[in-house]
Design a protein that fits this description.
The chain has 406 residues and is an alpha/beta fold. It has helices at 2-12, 14-28, 31-50, 53-64, 101-113, 133-142, 156-165, 182-188, 194-207, 229-236, 243-246, 260-265, 279-282, 322-332, 342-345, 352-368, 374-389, 393-404, and strands at residues 71-74, 118-120, 146-151, 172-176, 214-221, 247-251, 272-274, 287-288, 293-295, 306-309, 348-350. 48% of the residues lie in helices and 11% in strands. The longest helix has 20 residues, at 31-50. The protein is globular. The mean pLDDT is 94. The structure holds S-adenosylmethionine and iron/sulfur cluster (2 copies). The site of S-adenosylmethionine has 17 residues, from β3 and β5.
Length: 406
């Protein structure tokens, strides 16, 4: 009902929607939001001090086991216009194709019946590299489901009018951008052109932000871009509202099955470990792939994490399918059953408590100091990374005294 009402407001009274959004941001994302993040940080530091990541993951695994996911994933295409070094989507051996529209409708209908409220349109591809984007959005609108788009933005010009038309069901977009210097950007987002990115970010401002679209800008941290994070903030913050909320710096994981780039360029080895008791095996978030098979994970470059098939079974039964239960059992077995899943045995993650501590600190900084220069921010990024490497309450207090108390 809430979603339906908001869609109607977006469509009929766009200016009123923008006004409501400003009020909502003021109420939900002001000082209280930052205070809450600071409190959360204390709790997370204590957790890191008192229990290993393995123990923490195990506890979370059982806490979330078999709960329902409100998010569904629809792989409308598994192709991409570029090949980022930390993702290497081109190494996927699954057949590249666009999802058939009947299959899309069948999936969306079942997701709706299963209580899903928003649907992400990507796995390891780019939704704007899909010429039929409009047709999928039309189906989502029919079932009144919100669409989430994450994109490299390089083909935004091809879909800008469609995005405008479907504002009622898709009003926020995440732009994944991993560099601010042309050389860094083009090295990481391999095949992308920096000038085209900027052209499309400008277009997004003129055509979409003015009607109320909310943008996020995300960066995956690597040794290649860490030294320019300060410049990144200063340059890209003009493209988004509330950078403390909408600009994210995420630690890299071993998304690509080829770990070479990850192992060489991960900035936080101290907190990196194998992904045992993984949350994707704790509860099923259905990744409906282009051909209707359902995978449990976004790292499924070869289909080996497929647990069921929408052509044969319904989404609401898949949590109990043999495929998913086997994957779950393998993660709960501490005697090596996980080795049955080649992708799981080569999967590394940065401790997500440490990732969250980092995100909270950066959010506080961007909130408290919205208009500093690149050098100022870079110094904080450098010191915060050093703090994470030797993470404890005392060091946090030192960091707080230096940057976080005002
Ligand atoms: C796989 S992409 C698919 C959507 C779209 N093509 C994009 O780039 O936003 C989804 C997100 O994963 C991020 N990503 C890619 N490789 C990653 C890695 N190794 N570790 C963490 N995030 C990664 C991307 O930067 C992007 O924000
Ligand atoms: S991160 Fe996104 S844009 Fe980059 S290669 Fe992967 S799917 Fe394509
Ligand atoms: S590959 Fe396995 S361990 Fe890694 S995220 Fe996917 S399900 Fe989890």
């Amino acid at each position: 009902m809430y979603n339906y009402l908001i869609s109607v407001i977006k469509k009929t009274f766009p200016r009123f929607y923008i006004f409501l959004k400003i009020i909502k941001n003021k109420i939900l994302f002001g000082k209280h939001y930052i205070k809450k993040k600071e409190l959360e940080t204390f709790g997370l530091i204590k957790s890191v001090e008192n229990e290993s990541f393995f123990e923490y993951q195990k506890k979370e695994f059982f806490k979330n086991k078999d709960t329902k996911s409100k998010t569904g994933i629809l792989e409308i295409n598994n192709s991409c216009n570029i090949n980022c070094v930390m993702c290497d989507t081109k190494s996927s051996t699954r057949q590249k194709k666009l999802m058939d529209l009947d299959l899309c409708e069948k999936s969306v209908k079942q997701m709706k019946e299963d209580g899903v409220t928003s649907v992400l349109l990507h796995t390891i591809g780019d939704p704007l590299a899909n010429a039929k984007l409009k047709d999928y959005l039309k189906i989502l609108r029919k079932y009144n489901l919100q669409a989430g788009i994450s994109t490299n933005a390089l083909m935004l010009d091809k879909h800008v009018d469609t995005l405008k038309e479907y504002f009622d069901i898709c009003s926020s977009i995440r732009f994944s951008i991993d560099g601010v210097k042309k050389e860094t950007y083009e090295k990481i987002r391999f095949g992308g052109k920096f000038e085209k990115l900027i052209e499309n970010l400008e277009l997004a401002q003129k055509k979409l932000r003015v009607i109320g679209f909310e943008f996020m800008i995300d960066l995956v941290i690597t040794k290649d871009n860490f030294s320019e994070l300060g410049d990144f903030v200063v340059f890209y913050k003009k493209y988004i509202n509330n950078p403390y909320k909408n600009m994210h710096f995420n630690f890299m994981n071993s998304l690509s099955p080829n770990n070479d780039y990850f192992l060489k360029n991960n900035t936080l080895e101290q907190h990196t470990s194998k992904n045992f008791y993984c949350n994707y095996a704790s509860k099923l978030t259905p990744y409906v792939l282009v051909d209707g098979r359902v995978s449990a994970c976004c790292r499924d470059y070869d289909g080996s994490l497929v647990v069921d098939d929408i052509n044969q079974n319904k989404i609401n039964t898949m949590q109990n399918s043999n495929g998913f239960k086997n994957l779950q059992q393998a993660h709960m077995d501490e005697n090596g059953k996980i080795n049955d899943y080649k992708l799981c045995t080569s999967c590394y993650v940065v401790d997500n408590r440490v990732d969250q501590i980092w995100r909270n600190i950066i959010a506080s900084i961007l909130f408290k100091y919205p208009d500093e220069n690149a050098k100022f921010y870079q110094e904080i990024f450098n010191e915060t990374l050093e703090f994470l490497k030797d993470l404890n309450t005392l060091n946090y207090q030192k960091l707080q005294n230096k940057f976080l108390t005002n």
